[in-house]
Write a structure and sequence with these properties.
Elements: H1 4-19, H2 28-35, E1 38-45, E2 48-55, E3 59-62, H3 69-76, H4 82-103
Antiparallel strand pairs: 1-2, 2-3
Helix pairs in contact: 3-4
């Protein structure tokens, strides 16, 4: 039977090894800016959907029409390395795609039985 201290050391060693496997962490101001990001879907054009992203430190931009997003991230946070910039880009893409998914209806609209009523039929009732 192992003691509580050896179990604790084993668990902590696993946590340290997980962190060392290439997990990219972001500084607190960057995480706060990502949490404060807001998206608004605009009218789609023939090129596809348009998602307006409003984010502290990056300003407002249309996600699909911003090819220089990594440059904007580098200007806003020059202390980030390439892996962190790539993670911020992925997070912004996830936020924008989630906003697009929320605005699209899941399928054709449901029909109600009340709308299928045919008014041409007369209602037959019995006379008492």
């Amino acid at each position: 039977m192992e003691g509580p201290q050896s179990y604790l050391n084993r668990v902590l060693a696993k946590k340290v090894s997980r962190k060392a496997k290439g997990v990219v962490t972001l500084p607190t101001p960057v995480r706060a800016a990502l949490e404060g990001a807001r998206c608004m879907c605009r009218e789609a054009t023939d090129k596809g959907s348009r998602t307006l992203v409003s984010m502290p430190s990056l300003g407002h931009f249309i996600f699909e029409q911003t090819p220089d997003l990594s440059e904007r991230i580098q200007r806003a946070w020059p202390e980030l390395d390439a892996a962190q910039v790539a993670r911020v880009e992925r997070d912004i893409k996830g936020i924008a795609l989630a906003a697009i998914a929320r605005t699209k209806p899941p399928g054709p609209p449901r029909r109600s039985w009340a709308m299928d009523w045919d008014y041409s039929h007369s209602i037959n009732t019995r006379d008492f």
